[in-house]
Design brief:
Elements lengths: L1 E5 L4 H13 L4 E6 L16 E3 L12 E5 L5 H7 L5 E4 L6 H6 L1 H22 L3 E7 L21 H20 L2 E7 L1 E3 L9 H10 L4 E4 L5 E2 L1 E3 H13 L6 E5 L5 E2 H14 L7 E4 L14 H7 L7 H14 L1
Parallel strand pairs: 1-2, 1-5, 2-4, 3-4, 5-6, 6-7, 7-12, 8-11, 9-14
Antiparallel strand pairs: 10-13
Helix pairs in contact: 1-7, 2-4, 4-5, 6-8, 6-10, 8-10
Length: 326
């Protein structure tokens, strides 16, 4: 199988590559990344068998990882780099509520036009599968658990841009027959998250640097925290399973956890490793944040044959160990 991964040098991309190369012999992987977050050397977490290639040099060779530097807003690059691919896993995006509030236009251009470029690449180049990294953000405020049939009322520009991506995935399946699958990720954490600014990775980094941790608001806002290995397993199933085209799946743990609870678990794990005490303060509530968020993953279990396996204590333990050794 030839897999093109946009944003493959990022956190989820690195974990996906590690998962795929450890699971499937003979898989060829090509990455498009602008190196704005992840760097090529970060792929050493996943594999040492990679090299940066000019587009003209990139080839689909078994057990090889080619990295092509480029931006997903480059329409011509999308068409050329995807030639010969069987699957596109579209991870590259502006991520997070905060940046979208600060610059809504950039968020829209990256997340909407960037997604459209690679859906067009599927249509023009006859690529059968497209896996889109979405989020629970399109739903907005609701009484959780979130499920796939809820009406969307996004709160943040980020949620709006991801909703647009889901809409284009739906239309490219129903009009052009591209086997699109949109995965609404929970709050992802795990090894390899050195550049992430989400709560688990950020708080671990700050704690190891003896810095103060700031929780937005009272910390009672809830999220659904999913470990990376569970997440990339869902991506792989979506990329390889037939008869799931045009679908949206919630990919999370079906557990509601407050930011306070995840912080307490992380501090407990750090204390067991001899790190602490850690100072925690409460700041202002962040604009665009929803109060409660967790997912009903029944559809993913029934149609993908997927469900999460890692609990929060085990997942955070593995993540802390990775940070301590890296």
């Amino acid at each position: 199988m030839n897999i093109l991964i946009t944003g493959g040098c990022g956190f989820i991309g690195r974990n996906l590559i590690k998962y795929v190369t450890g699971k499937e012999e003979g898989t060829s992987i090509r990455i498009v990344d602008n190196f704005s977050v992840g760097q090529p050397e970060d792929l050493k977490y996943a594999s040492n068998d990679f090299h940066i290639a000019e587009l003209s040099e990139a080839e689909w060779n078994s057990n090889q990882i080619d990295i092509v530097k480029g931006d997903i807003l480059d329409e011509g690059l999308a068409l050329k780099v995807s030639e010969g691919a069987d699957v596109i896993v579209h991870l590259a995006a502006n991520t997070g509520v905060g940046p979208s509030v600060e610059d809504p236009r950039s968020d829209c251009e990256t997340n909407v036009i960037g997604t459209l470029n690679y859906l067009e690449a599927c249509r023009i180049n006859g690529i059968r599968k497209f896996v889109f990294a979405s989020s629970g953000a399109p739903i907005g405020e609701c009484n959780p658990p979130i499920h796939e049939e809820l009406a969307c009322h996004p709160v943040s520009p980020y949620g709006s841009s991801k909703l647009a991506g889901e809409g284009y995935c739906s239309s490219y399946f129903r009009t052009f027959g591209v086997g699109t699958v949109a995965l609404r990720f929970g709050n992802v954490y795990g090894p390899g998250s050195s550049h992430k600014s989400s709560v688990v990775a950020k708080f671990i980094r700050q704690a190891l640097n003896n810095e103060t941790l700031e929780i937005y608001g009272d910390g009672k806002q809830t999220r659904d925290f999913i470990f990376t290995e569970d997440l990339v397993n869902a991506i792989w199933l979506s990329a390889t399973k037939e008869d799931v085209g045009g679908e949206i799946f919630q990919i999370a743990t079906n557990k509601e956890t407050t930011v306070l609870e995840v912080t307490e678990q992380m501090l407990s794990t750090l204390e067991e490793k001899g790190i602490g005490p850690v100072n925690v303060i409460h700041g202002e509530k962040r604009l665009g944040d929803v109060l409660r968020n967790f997912s009903d993953t029944t559809k993913a279990k029934n149609q993908l044959g997927w469900e999460s396996k890692f609990g929060l204590k085990d997942g955070i333990g593995i993540t802390v160990d990775w940070f301590l050794t890296n």
